[in-house]
Design goal:
309 residues; alpha/beta; Rossmann fold; 2 domains; four-stranded parallel beta sheet; 9 helices; 47% helix
Length: 309
């Protein structure tokens, strides 16, 4: 009895990924797979006659290797596409996801440019797809196994305190999103660190040994970080850049908290009185000022925590 294909019911909202659609990723990875198979086929046909001069069996052996390579590419692509669409693993797709993405993503960006699709659009679609796959593949985690990894550009450019080597040095003045993110850390009992670049981020991951990373960054750093840390699952939250790249960036605190509530196996009581609760808030000047005076990047007003996933 055939099993009907049903669309993933837990699809994430496009608005959190700059309007990115999964169909863009599915289309590009399918075209990339077809192009790669075509290149392999042409690369075998052209020297086919010459290979026979080496040994009569060389063309047949080469042909079998080629067919096996094409079958592997088609299997990985089909399994990944079905996994993306339905939200459930197909044909062992969870095992080849990391390898497929590392191989295909650079080719997808190149192919996207040929069709007028920007690199940023491809990365937005990739991050959305990755997050849905991570939500569907992974179970729940103890708070001590979860790491929130932040970029240093979330810290106010006017702040004189260095947080890279110790986020607890933060004065919690409310001038940037770090204060509210520390509230989330303290409430849920997870780990939190700030990285100034890929090398520091990898060092933090090696030191903390998390089983899940919730990373805040731009699409470029998220895309590369997701590939670099495989097989550790990374759930990406895109930052906001009202002042341009790498300067006083913002983040949807509600999206970070929703991710925590989805992945953690231990949640704080919903009625816990937590100063500066941040569920559903976005830290930014468009959301009003924090009590007690003006600030360049004031925090949002508290909102009730989201329901557990």
């Amino acid at each position: 009895m055939s099993m009907p294909l049903r669309k993933n019911p837990d699809s994430l909202p496009r608005e959190d990924y700059h309007g990115a659609r999964k169909r863009l990723f599915i289309g590009l990875i399918s075209l990339t797979s077809a192009a790669l198979c075509l290149v392999l086929l042409v690369g075998w046909i052209i020297p086919y006659i010459g290979l026979g001069n080496i040994h009569p069996l060389v063309p047949e052996i080469t042909g079998m290797l080629l067919v096996a390579s094409i079958a592997l590419i088609v299997w990985a692509t089909l399994g990944l596409v079905l996994h993306i669409y339905t939200g459930r693993p197909w044909f062992g797709s969870q095992r080849v996801r990391g390898v497929a993405v590392k191989l295909f993503l650079p080719l997808m960006e190149l192919l996207g440019r040929l069709f007028g699709v920007s690199r940023e659009e491809v990365r937005h679609s990739f991050i959305k797809v990755n997050n849905e796959l991570v939500r569907g593949e992974t179970g729940s985690f103890a708070p001590s196994d979860v790491l929130i990894l932040l970029p240093h550009c979330l810290q106010s450019s006017n702040c004189s305190v260095r947080l890279t080597y110790g986020v607890d040095h933060c004065k919690r003045c409310g001038q940037c999103p770090i204060e509210r993110l520390l509230v989330l850390r303290d409430r849920y009992g997870v780990k939190l660190a700030i990285a100034t670049g890929g090398t520091i981020a990898r060092r933090i991951v090696v030191k903390e040994r998390p089983r899940l990373i919730i990373a805040v960054a731009c699409e470029r750093d998220l895309a590369s970080g997701i590939q670099d840390t495989h097989p550790i699952p990374v759930y990406g939250v895109l930052n906001e850049r009202p002042n341009g790249p790498c300067l006083d960036t913002l983040v949807s605190l509600g999206n970070v908290e929703k991710a925590l509530r989805h992945f953690l196996n231990v949640l704080p009581p919903d009625d816990a009185a937590v100063p500066g609760a941040v569920a559903g808030a976005t830290f930014g000047p468009q959301h009003g000022k924090k009590d007690g005076g003006a600030a360049p990047h004031p925090a949002a007003a508290p909102a009730p925590p989201a329901e557990p996933q």
